[in-house]
Amino acid sequence: MTALPGERPCLTDLAVDGYDVLLDLEGARRFHPASVRRWVLARGVRDVDAMTDLPKAFRAALADAWDVRRTRLALASDSDDGTTKLLLELRDGQTIESVLIPEGDRLTLCVSTQVGCGVRCAFCASGLLGVVRDLTSGEIVEQFLEARALAAERGRPLTNLVLMGGGEPLNNFAHVRTALEALIHADGAAFGARRITVSTIGIPKKIDRLEELGKQVNLAISLHAPNEALRGRLIPGLDRVPLDDVLAAAGRYFRRTGREITFEYAVLKGVNDSVECAEELARRLKGVRGKVNLIPWNPVADLPFDRPDDAAVDAMVRTLEARGVRTTVRRSRGRDIDAACGQLRRRFPTGDAVRERDARR
Ligand code: SAH
After folding, report:
1. Whole domain around residue 27: which residue ranges?
2. Could you give the number of structural domains in the chain?
3. Which pTM was predicted?
């Protein structure tokens, strides 16, 4: 087992314009910070020795004071359907999940933004134990760096990034912003903003601040219900926010960015899967530029819901489309490796849990 790094500052936690703090190190020259940043974000090296264009003395000073990474890949497991699930161990032993999802020409990476989640959607595995803590920006960036390296090794580059893993990104706004800047900036990982989607439960004030993340980032809003009463039951941890306020914020985001909004809707059998729900949803979405993505519920052990019948989902699609709402259905992936929404972390909540399993093998 590789030892986890101690509590030292970490390069991946730096803002893309914050590398100049390295000028304080002994032997630093003016161009060294930019060079280090390139090694960390563009090249994705894991240790200082790999930064071969830097003088030995500066490398020694850097290695003395700074860690390059703060997470460790604990597990990478491939599913029969091509999905790869990554479990990362954080410095404090907690774990988070990222998932690589190939689809046609695309390879999408889904990353987490918090350990656990404080929103507690009734049907979701991530919120079961509440929020443990926010991820640092480096812990978000490193999910990308790990997955990008793995994808490159396999000869298939990442094409899309979604912040749809564990956690509510807008409840960890500052770190999410710093991470996205590092990923998007030409001097950072140079990943196109248009290929990034932030998925949120829909907090109007914070949606208005999303512009700070870079104008072209896509927005997905989790609705799950066409009215407040049902939404409140499914999302008890959300302070009662009127649906109209959420939709108004979505409209403002579209007008400012020109990016079409995706409305996510987890479909739960007998709860929100009726034609009436679809009709009401179409009425609520009238005049809002966006599309609906239905997500048939991925079963989570111990939760009192069922997967909807295909016929019910099809009827919802027909009802929405007939009323002019573009609708897609998300095929669930990776179920044989616990990839469905937060379930690998549930099995291995800490790095120790992974090691115990390995020891038993
Ligand atoms: N906090 C963000 C990201 C959550 S995960 C948000 O709420 O948008 C992305 C989507 O998957 C959300 O719409 C979430 O509600 C949904 N989801 C979570 N668990 C699910 C499950 N077991 N089955 C189907 N969809 C699920």
Report:
1. 11-65
2. 2
3. 0.94
